[in-house]
Design goal:
Length: 71
Amino acid sequence: MRPPVELLTGRVAAFDHDRGLGEVVAADHTVYPFHCIEIADGSRDIEVGLDVVFELRSKLGRVEAAGLRPR
C-alpha cells in the first residue's frame, strides 16, 4: 500500500505550450518543473498565474511537480 501523498499549493509561473514544459512556484517559494502530462485534467494545457495543488515526484534524479490541478 502506498503512503499518503502530501499535497502542496503554488502558482504556475511559466508554461511553454510548444514544448509542454512549465514551472510552478510552491508556497515556500521553491520552483518545481513539470511536464504537460502531469496536468491532472488531461488537457496538457494550463494558464500561467493559476493557483494549483500538486504533489512531488522524483523523475530521473530530480524532483518535479505532478498531478497539477486548480486550487
